[in-house]
């Protein structure tokens, strides 16, 4: 019985492959359309793509073009070909802004660009593009069923951008370029007031000023460390029980000790 089932399945598979190959080689766009449609519905997106690619130009300007363009873009999306999916969905929205599928297409275009976002250590051009596209989608479709997911993706990409900016600023601290660190951390705090890295940014700004002041020439030690005290007070005002409180208190104690010599 099992052998019979295997044989039957093999025959069906071979027949299916044969029909697919015939459709690929056929000059009849209707045959290609029908086969591509069936393959797409069956979730065989890669195979359907080869057929869509052959017939998209032939249907340009015809009534079927709208549907074909959408399915072609979506097959790219389902195959995680995000560069092509984003591009094709953008083309679809541009060509058919009033389509029933325009909302889904705009959402999937935005997701495609978001999916291209790399590790925070790399160039974030794709992340910025994904953020822009997702924000535009929310603006266009605030009540969309896709809005919740779009907002979550916006948060994820925004945090990645924040981490990139924060790590660059912290990098100046690491190589002991303290004025550059302070300036970069100021910019970060201004650009991302609600960032999850806000407390760390305040701390590294404090530590940078402390290191900068304590290593300054004698006449500049006091004013620079007094600035550090102000930064300490800002940090504990915002984060009185924060993760960096103990380290900040140690810095403050050392500053007080140093300043005793400048009374």
From TrEMBL:
<keyword id="KW-0732">Signal</keyword>
<protein>
    <submittedName>
        <fullName>Beta-barrel assembly machine subunit BamD</fullName>
    </submittedName>
</protein>
<dbReference type="InterPro" id="IPR039565">
    <property type="entry name" value="BamD-like"/>
</dbReference>
<dbReference type="InterPro" id="IPR017689">
    <property type="entry name" value="BamD"/>
</dbReference>
<dbReference type="InterPro" id="IPR011990">
    <property type="entry name" value="TPR-like_helical_dom_sf"/>
</dbReference>
<feature type="domain" description="Outer membrane lipoprotein BamD-like">
    <location>
        <begin position="33"/>
        <end position="215"/>
    </location>
</feature>
<keyword id="KW-0998">Cell outer membrane</keyword>
<keyword id="KW-0472">Membrane</keyword>
<dbReference type="Pfam" id="PF13525">
    <property type="entry name" value="YfiO"/>
</dbReference>
């Amino acid at each position: 019985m099992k052998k019979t089932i295997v044989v039957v399945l093999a025959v069906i598979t071979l027949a299916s492959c044969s029909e697919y190959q015939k459709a690929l080689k056929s000059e009849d766009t209707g045959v290609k359309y029908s086969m591509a449609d069936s393959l797409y519905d069956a979730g065989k997106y890669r195979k359907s793509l080869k057929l869509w690619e052959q017939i998209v130009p032939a249907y340009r300007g015809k009534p079927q073009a709208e549907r074909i363009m959408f399915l072609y873009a979506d097959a790219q999306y389902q195959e995680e070909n995000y560069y092509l999916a984003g591009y094709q969905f953008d083309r679809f929205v541009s060509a058919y802004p009033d389509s029933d599928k325009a909302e889904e297409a705009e959402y999937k275009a935005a997701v495609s660009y978001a999916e291209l976002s790399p590790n925070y250590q790399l160039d974030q051009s794709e992340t910025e593009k994904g953020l822009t596209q997702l924000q535009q989608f929310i603006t266009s479709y605030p009540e969309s069923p896709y809005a919740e997911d779009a907002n979550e993706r916006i948060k994820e990409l925004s945090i990645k951008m924040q981490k990139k900016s924060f790590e660059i600023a912290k990098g100046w601290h690491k190589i002991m370029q303290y004025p550059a660190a302070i300036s970069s951390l100021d910019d970060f705090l201004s650009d991302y007031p609600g960032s999850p890295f806000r407390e760390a940014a305040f701390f590294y700004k404090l530590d940078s000023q402390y290191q900068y002041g304590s290593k300054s020439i004698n006449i500049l030690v006091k004013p620079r460390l007094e600035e550090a005290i102000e930064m300490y007070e800002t940090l504990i005002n915002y984060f009185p029980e924060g993760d960096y409180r103990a380290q900040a208190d140690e810095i403050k104690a050392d500053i007080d000790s140093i300043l005793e010599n400048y009374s």
